[in-house]
Design goal:
By secondary structure, this protein is an alpha+beta fold. It has 36 helices and 13 strands. The chain is elongated, with a radius of gyration of 34 Å.
Length: about 750
């Protein structure tokens, strides 16, 4: 290739510089430097990039670069103060600014002539023809050798911006802003922060390692990605120069490069948005989708660099599942910009992940109110979580996620949320399909958590185990996965496996309380309510220590329901009252109200059921699971089993909901027993025993054996009845003394009558 500029020509095959027909002597490194600058003309080439490309085999300082640039200027008769060829960008690098013509052959177009009276002469017309052919050849060569390199299967890693301004407000902030801009693209797929943390672990690097171009490129190769986006910001007087470069992971070759200038600090985010849009098009995205999904960065996030920086820190922390630690960053972002919609949305989801659903609902509501000008991707995120957490309308949440997944087919977040919606609706096959797709698109800890629990809910325990092992092999540390492993160990009668998770959780804020509550349910399942109460007490203390008030109230309400089911109404009423004093979250209120209904406090339970129905008119689980279950148990308390069974028809579509533990099925079984319909009752209790992956260690999982024995006895099948009673009593062979568990005393008396 021969490059011509002014009177000079540089030949990369012959490796020489000439002025007309006269060779210009240059040292090899200086000539290599010139070639690289010319090949990357009109682009700021960073000093480090030049050192890497021109001196790849040696460790040299910037002095070598400065010396070579000086030699080039001398050879080209160029003035550093008024450059014609090589412009210096202080502290940043160099830019080749002259007009260049390119030819690939022996016939080289002469330099462009100056205006002359003989423009119309045959010689001039001939030169125009030659120049046109050369230019056309150059155009065709450029587009032939610079295809749109990325496809819809490729992924991209975002490196941290190189910040030479000295202003720390840009640290992390520009990368986050770029991420927001690129998330709008249905074409590009950005490697998530969670997966970056995972890959850094595989590289034996700390999770918060700065993603320099070198680290990002290695990470890119390990993650199986195609390219790294490497940005930089430099200050020139009062102006700021932003440069964004796409580099192939495998070779380090530059795919595309864009620049934008900001007149001052307040316009940096606007300049960043422009570079992102231009880069999207250069990497192969159609102009139509770039234009359609290109909300300005200041609308999509915030106009405040300081708020965006806090938001960025929150994203980095929460990517490691440290949700409590991320909360202060999001709150500071909101204090800096009270209209920052996505900060409210992320804060809401962090609270939800911590089990603080009331706070989650409040913040997601605020995000929903502020969502008018956010990007399309962010609108999907905000809308879906508003319906998940605030209104609780799972059908609407699923509809939003379905459209989200169609609009952004490469987005994994929508798939995880869709799996969550389907599992709560009891549609587990659909949930599994979406979880598998999310892991295929982006193997993150959250995706593996979802996939693991879909297998667990479907009672496909071996596949759940393999999923957990694969996640751990990828070094995807996840508290939720540890809780799942405890449940899996319980279902496989693996006491050692459960003990391992207890040891893991000990002393971990936000995790110890969860495992203590799981241990409490396991103790109750084994007929040890005294031990269960103590474990629940410790779980409540640990949750309050972690400032998880609603979670602590949930543990108290769960303990109240256990006591009520075991026949200890006084303890149940006291614990339910304590729970309700701390929180009126929907799950807390449901468990407490159901406990009160079993414990005989019909008035209080009825009031709570009415309040739930009125406060959450759209909430799918409240309206079609919680309220019908409470009211059905109240009907049983009035000795009206027919009414109880009728009320529970509303719960039928959602009774297998993930996390619901099948309480409507249990109450229906009790209703059929009260109605003396043993065959129907047996079918309900058997349904509980067949859904072990959903019920896990809930007390009704063991009480269903007793219910089944009673149902068979009612039907006159003494053999099956005795077998079911024996199964129940075997679970409680080491139970607390009979007086502590009234239901055990009753069961032993009933079994004695069968014999």
């Amino acid at each position: 290739m021969i490059y011509r500029f002014d009177q000079y020509a540089v030949d990369d095959r012959e490796f020489r510089l000439s002025a007309g027909a006269v060779p210009v002597p240059l040292e090899p490194k200086s000539l290599r430097l010139l070639l690289y600058l010319v090949e990357n003309r009109n682009r700021l080439v960073r000093k480090q990039e030049l050192l890497d490309k021109v001196w790849p085999e040696a460790m040299v300082t910037e002095n070598a670069l400065t010396r070579s640039v000086g030699q080039l200027r001398k050879a080209l008769n160029d003035d550093s103060h008024e450059p014609k060829f090589i412009e210096t960008v202080p502290t940043a690098g160099y830019r080749f600014i002259a007009e260049v013509s390119v030819a690939d052959g022996e016939t080289i177009a002469p330099p462009k002539p100056q205006p002359h009276p003989q423009w119309a002469s045959p010689q001039v017309l001939a030169w125009i023809a030659v120049a046109t052919i050369a230019a056309a050849g150059s155009y065709l060569f450029f587009f032939h050798h610079n295809p749109k390199v990325l496809t819809e299967k490729d992924t991209v890693v975002l490196a941290d911006f190189t910040n030479s301004t000295g202003d720390t407000v840009f640290d992390g902030t520009l990368r986050q802003g770029l991420s927001v801009q690129l998330e709008q693209s249905p074409f590009l797929s950005i490697v998530s922060d969670g997966r970056i943390r995972q890959t850094l672990k595989l590289m034996d690097q700390p999770a918060d390692t700065k993603l320099t171009p070198e680290i990002a490129r290695e990470l890119c190769q390990r993650a199986g990605s195609e390219a790294v986006l490497d940005g930089s910001i430099a200050q020139i007087g009062t102006r700021y120069l932003l440069t964004l470069k796409a580099v192939l992971c495998s070779t380090g070759d530059t795919l595309a490069s864009v620049e934008a200038q900001a007149s001052d600090k307040n316009h940096v985010l606007d300049a960043l948005g422009k570079t992102a849009s231009e880069m999207r098009n250069k990497l192969g995205e159609s102009l139509s989708t770039v234009q359609k999904f290109d909300t300005p960065l200041e609308q999509a996030t915030t106009g405040s660099l300081e708020a965006l920086q806090q938001y960025s820190l929150g994203r980095r922390v929460s990517a490691g599942a440290h949700y409590a630690a991320a909360v202060p960053f999001y709150r500071r972002a909101i204090s800096l910009d009270p209209k920052f919609a996505m900060a409210y949305a992320r804060l809401g989801m962090n609270y939800r992940n911590l089990g603080e659903n009331v706070l989650g609902a409040e913040n997601n509501r605020k995000a929903y109110e502020l969502r008018a000008q956010v990007s399309e991707w962010e609108k999907f995120y905000i809308d879906s979580h508003y319906h998940f957490v605030t209104t609780g309308n799972l059908e609407k949440a699923a509809q939003v996620c379905e459209i989200w997944a169609q609009s952004y087919p490469r987005d994994w977040v929508s798939r995880v949320d869709l799996a969550d919606a389907y599992s709560k609706l009891g549609e587990y096959d659909k949930a599994l399909s979406e979880a598998l797709e999310s892991v295929r698109l982006n193997p993150t800890a959250i995706g593996y958590e979802s996939l693991f629990h879909q297998y667990l809910d479907l009672d496909r325990l071996n596949e759940a185990r393999l999923t957990a092992e694969e996640a751990q092999a990828r070094k995807l540390e996840s508290p939720v996965l540890h809780y799942g492993l405890y449940r899996l160990a319980f279902l496989q009668n693996d006491a050692t496996g459960m003990a391992q998770q207890v040891v893991w959780a000990r002393g971990r804020p936000g995790a110890e309380n969860v495992v203590l509550d799981l241990e409490a349910d396991t103790a109750a399942y084994s007929g040890k309510p005294g031990q269960a109460r103590e474990l629940s007490r410790r779980a409540v203390v640990a949750a309050k220590r972690a400032e998880e008030t609603e979670v602590a109230a949930g543990y108290q309400a769960n303990a109240a329901l256990r006591d009520a089911l075991f026949g200890n109404p006084a303890e149940a009423r006291g614990r339910a009252a304590d729970a309700l004093d701390s929180s009126n979250g929907p799950a807390v209120q449901f468990l407490a109200a159901l406990a009160l209904a079993f414990a005989g406090d019909s008035v209080r339970a009825g009031t709570l059921a009415d309040d739930l129905g009125n406060r959450f008119p759209e909430h799918t689980i409240v309206q079609s699971y919680y309220v019908p279950t409470i009211r059905a148990q109240l009907a049983l308390s009035r000795n009206d089993p027919s009414r109880a069974i009728e009320i529970l028809q509303a719960a039928s579509p959602y009774e297998l909901s993930a996390g619901g533990r099948l309480y409507p099925v249990y109450v229906r079984g009790e209703g059929y027993l009260a109605a003396h319909r043993g065959d129907k009752a047996a079918a309900e209790f058997q349904k509980i025993l067949d859904q072990r992956g959903i019920v896990v260690n809930s007390p009704i999982g063991v009480l269903a054996h007793l219910g089944l024995g009673r149902a068979y006895a009612l039907s006159g099948d003494k053999s099956k009845a005795k077998s079911a009673y024996q199964e129940f009593l075997s679970f409680w062979k080491d139970a607390d003394p009979d007086p502590d568990i009234p239901i055990l005393k009753q069961a032993k008396a009933e079994y004695a009558k069968l014999n």
